[in-house]
Amino acid sequence: MAEPSAATQSPSVSSSSSGAEPSAPGGGSPGACPALGAKSCGSSCAVHDLIFWRDVKKTGFVFGTTLIMLLSLAAFSVISVVSYLILALLSVTISFRVYKSVIQAVQKSEEGHPFKAYLDVDITLSSEAFHNYVNAAMVHINRALKLIIRLFLVEDLVDSLKLAVFMWLMTYVGAVFNGITLLILAELLIFSVPIVYEKYKTQIDHYVGIARDQTKSIVEKIQAKLPGIAKKKAE
């Protein structure tokens, strides 16, 4: 009599286990990166959460620090900014070190060095990690070199013309803004555009789609009037 009961219980167990499996692929949290692996998700998700203001304190600290540094570089030379930053950091650490030493002398305690926990941290870069970073960088470098060769040797006439028009427009941008000003504007856009797009995604996608269709139609008209491209497409 024990065997039939076990047999009747087995379908329920198998059905519960089979019902739990399909929810695994899509059962992540909204802020997770399900399309990425565990290793690649670490840095990618961190940047994603940073520019989307998931942690307001962390994003505010990074945004404020980098903005102050860029504004300082716009007003002073690089050597002056780096020197002042190092002096400020040394002033904080030396003052704290002296303060803790005085407190330990007065209280006659033996707490040791106040930064001992940070001094004992292993910050050495292994050869394997170094090679991984180099290999990842080489992939992007090779891709950039292929793109540069393709554009400058006019593999696709339209793409090369796009680059020429873009560089012509950049001459006017360079006449108005310098490099530091462009970096400041880029940082403001990086920390503002994603969160605005997230709130007004539907409206923005609608207008972007209209602009994309108009641009595509213009490019097709230009390609139709260029004899070399027209022949290549006909073949």
TrEMBL record:
PANTHER family: RETICULON-3 (PTHR45799:SF4), RETICULON-LIKE PROTEIN (PTHR45799). It is a multi-pass membrane protein. Residues 47-235 form the Reticulon domain. Residues 1-28 are annotated as: Disordered. Signal peptide: none annotated. InterPro entries: Reticulon (IPR003388), RTN1-4 (IPR046964). GO terms for cellular component: endoplasmic reticulum membrane; neuron projection; postsynaptic density. This is Reticulon. Keywords: Endoplasmic reticulum, Membrane, Transmembrane, Transmembrane helix. GO terms for biological process: brain development; endoplasmic reticulum tubular network formation; neuron differentiation. It is found in: Endoplasmic reticulum membrane. Its main location: endoplasmic reticulum. It comes from Vulpes vulpes. It holds the Pfam family Reticulon. The chain crosses the membrane at residues 61-90, 175-197. Residues 1-24 have a biased composition (Low complexity).
